[in-house]
């Protein structure tokens, strides 16, 4: 082996341990949201901080710069996998060395604590209890962004962590292009003469969880390498052979549990579908949040909320639950896809969902740029919500306290949800061309053919390509918001008999 | 602050992060035994190995030697807490630097893998499937012991990890002194004309777990800082504000679940009872396995299996379970304490328990010294068992595959169980002198007065004193096997009407 190839091997061995420790941090995060006793929160924040310190020291280890310089001159770079590994390590290293260790540790410590405070505050609708720690989180993220941006836009620097290649300007332009058609569709649908009926009744937790497990199975979730638990805010966690999901149960609204589950199954299937050769390497995780969200959203919406799959679900629910006021599969399809101005993003229908995201995008951009003070956030949220959705926010748990993201420091993350929807719209077109009988499978409660196509064309690549590139390669055309908007208009105009 | 006191502060700050990372490793271990999806085992062993590598690098960091040299000359040493911290760090450092990093990592990796293989092998009574990895574990532990012993006895070097100050010779001498009285008691009891009745019936998992939770509460377990889950082999895990316990359920034998729970509650109460000022310092964990076991065993036996507490349990079981063939509290007390030659150590009665331990002590000492080959272990185990217990081992899951310990590399650990029993015997004498009405509390299902006395006299000290010293201070007399043997003879002669 040449010295240069040796440097690549050393770098990858070092990186492998770092990736393994990153998985450990992810597992701790999962534990914190699902299993940890409440009284352990303070201690846990020290544990997380210590682990974050180790990870930061490794990710900024000066040997990485030396190994990179040598390895980038090596024969190995001719190999696309090696080239992609080096590209990821180079980018991560360049980011990490810009952030001082104590700042990274403070962020880990404060966000770990903030999540507990947020959960408490949310349960009591107590904005005041959350604001001081939120201000601390924002201040730390701004400091971090300033280190990263080096004179550039702070918010762009944060977006780059979740969606390499995207900017507030490019996302904002896309959102501007989407908004008129979404607003028009929303208005048409809400004003339609025909309105589908709602699901009625009470649905026991155990039965919901059993059905959630069966839904995960229907989408091909690998139970040997995952598990399903309850959490305040559903999430998925882990890569390689340990990708866990969570959901929540609302007795009056089983769709909350079911579609959260299918959504997280999409995320987990992406991680579990990555080429096993990439495990514990930079390519062994989803390439960006937007592409990740494309998987969760196509599972949840284009597949899980389609007429074919909901037909099967209707039959399942008839055998599992006592009366819910819907007697045929078309009415059930209508109830699943009922459009209304709700307060909660994660419960929003497909027409409203992106409007929730666009609002958060504007608010958090203002918070990070310093144009909006934390003390004004609740009022600004509520004003904007009334303007966009036409209803007043009744309490903070249905307003600015609803999402976990900001307590975790996830600023710049929300726009990737809509980007994911846009990518899902593109992938749906390509999937249906490639597997023309997919609805026949879905009508039998079997989404594994869709998982297989997505695994082959998107998931298995992990971090091999740039985010937008992997979607373009899978679709065979340049991704844009058009297919999503066409799909939404066709679906909801038919459903609302417009 | 003087330079020497500064060195102490730096050392303790560094140590605090190491302790936090040690807690993370403990949490990963807990996850592996309770929550981890089966298919994640291989990846998990890489994660554990990476974390073990980090811990080893920290524990052998050359700066520790410098800090120690300066700090040991500091004013701080006049403070007994600082002196104890330095003593622990000095001892740990001296041990750690003797073991090469790659060996420590290999041990972490192999034992992580071995636990999965053991669990599989045990479920299929498949000794052959377990032997190759067991041989690997033993070989690695022997290599480690050789590094530590530096010409001394290999097995002593391993014992020292669990019970500083104890040796095979001192433990062997104590076991030799105990054996004749135990053998005589066993023989008298098994030959007694009166034999208590057995518990009969089937006891559902959910009802057992509800009762287990109430038992933990009765002993003062702090649910805000702990939780109870199922595991193949019950264990407790974690220090500070996160001390979790596990149990198992056998439908025909609820005592298995109940007394495993009480036992692990004893361990967890020890950790949770340590002075909060010691959290994430070397004093913030139980001082030795023997002292740990003294807490779990006094909870389980002298308190939990006493006439007073079992009287309350009888009432509870009458209201929770349909018929179990015992109609009065004395008969129930007899069933709880029934003596018989069983195969499983963790299910053994108080008379047999230490004989199980003595057998493992002899076998593992021979394995580590190289006097017993792994290939001969099953036959040797079975021969020895037949000689000591008078019955033939029917299958390996009831013989050499029953305990998780060896798969974890825990050689030198078993004797601390009997040392813990001996200490529990001493503490029971002192507790009953200090709290003369303790049986009145226990008869009401309330063991919190015992927990309070143990917390004040043993638990809160954490690692402040040497193991034997903390027991001596609590008791006010020199610990010995006498009180345990007196207690056993009095209890079982009365119960068996001898």
SSE topology sketch:
Two copies of one chain form a homodimer.
Chain A: H1 3-34, H2 41-59, H3 62-71, H4 80-96, H5 101-123, H6 127-149, H7 154-162, H8 168-190, H9 205-218, E1 228-230, E2 236-237, E3 244-247, H10 254-273, H11 289-303, H12 307-320, H13 329-336, H14 350-369, H15 377-389, H16 415-434, H17 438-443, H18 448-457, H19 467-475, H20 482-495
Notes on the protein architecture:
The structure is a homodimer of 498-residue chains. With 498 residues, chain A is mainly alpha-helical. Helix content of chain A is 64%, strand content 2%. In chain A, strands 1-3-2 form a 3-stranded mixed beta sheet. In chain A, helix 2 (41-59) packs antiparallel against helix 5 (101-123), helix 5 packs antiparallel against helix 6 (127-149) and helix 11 (289-303) packs across helix 16 (415-434). The longest helix of chain A is centred in the N-terminal third of the chain and has 32 residues, at 3-34. Chain A starts with a helix and ends with a helix. The mean pLDDT of chain A is 95. Chains A and B meet through helix 1 and helix 2 of A and helix 1 and helix 2 of B.
């Amino acid at each position: 082996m040449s010295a240069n190839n040796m440097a690549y091997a050393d770098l990858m061995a070092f990186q492998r341990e770092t990736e393994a420790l990153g998985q450990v941090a992810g597992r701790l995060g999962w534990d914190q949201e699902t299993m940890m006793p409440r009284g352990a929160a303070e201690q846990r924040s020290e544990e997380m901080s210590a682990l974050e310190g180790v990870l930061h020291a490794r990710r900024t280890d000066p040997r990485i710069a030396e190994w990179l310089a040598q390895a980038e001159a090596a024969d190995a770079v001719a190999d696309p996998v090696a080239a992609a590994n080096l590209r990821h390590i180079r980018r991560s290293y360049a980011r990490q060395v810009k952030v001082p260790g104590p700042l990274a540790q403070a962020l880990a410590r404060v966000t770990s604590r903030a999540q507990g405070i947020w959960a408490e505050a949310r349960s009591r609708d107590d904005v005041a209890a959350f604001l001081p720690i939120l201000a601390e989180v924002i201040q730390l993220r701004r400091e971090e962004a300033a280190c990263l941006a080096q004179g550039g836009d702070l918010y762009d620097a944060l977006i780059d962590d979740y969606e390499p290649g995207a900017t507030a300007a490019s996302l904002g332009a896309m959102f501007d292009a989407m908004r008129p058609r979404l607003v028009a569709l929303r208005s048409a649908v809400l004003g339609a003469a025909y309105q589908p009926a709602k699901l009625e009744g009470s649905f026991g937790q155990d039965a919901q969880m059993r059905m959630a497990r069966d839904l995960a199975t229907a989408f091909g979730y690998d139970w040997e390498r995952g598990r399903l638990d309850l959490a305040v805010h559903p999430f998925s966690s882990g890569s390689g052979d340990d990708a866990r999901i969570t959901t929540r149960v609302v007795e009056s609204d089983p769709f909350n549990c079911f579609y959260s589950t299918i959504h997280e199954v999409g995320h987990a299937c992406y991680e579990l579908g990555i080429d096993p050769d990439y495990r514990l390497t930079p390519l062994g995780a989803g390439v960006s949040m937007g592409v990740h969200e494309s998987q969760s959203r196509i599972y949840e919406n284009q597949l899980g909320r389609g007429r074919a799959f909901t037909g099967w679900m209707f039959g399942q629910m008839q055998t599992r639950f006592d009366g819910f006021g819907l007697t045929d599969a078309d009415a059930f399809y209508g109830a699943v896809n009922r459009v209304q101005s709700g307060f909660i993003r994660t419960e929003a229908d497909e027409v409203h969902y992106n409007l929730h995201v666009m609002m958060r995008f504007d608010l958090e951009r203002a918070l990070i740029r310093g144009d909006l003070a934390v003390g004004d956030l609740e009022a600004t949220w509520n004003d904007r919500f009334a303007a966009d959705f036409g209803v007043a926010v009744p309490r903070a748990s249905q307003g600015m306290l609803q999402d976990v993201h900001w307590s975790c420091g996830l600023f710049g993350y929300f726009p990737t949800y809509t980007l994911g929807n846009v990518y899902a719209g593109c992938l749906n077109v390509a999937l249906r061309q490639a597997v023309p009988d997919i609805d026949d499978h879905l009508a039998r409660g079997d989404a594994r053919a869709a998982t297989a196509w997505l695994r082959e064309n998107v998931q298995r690549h992990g971090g091999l390509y740039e985010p937008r590139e992997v979607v373009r390669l899978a679709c065979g055309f340049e991704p844009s918001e058009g297919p999503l908007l066409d799909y939404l208009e066709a679906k909801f105009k038919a459903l609302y008999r417009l």
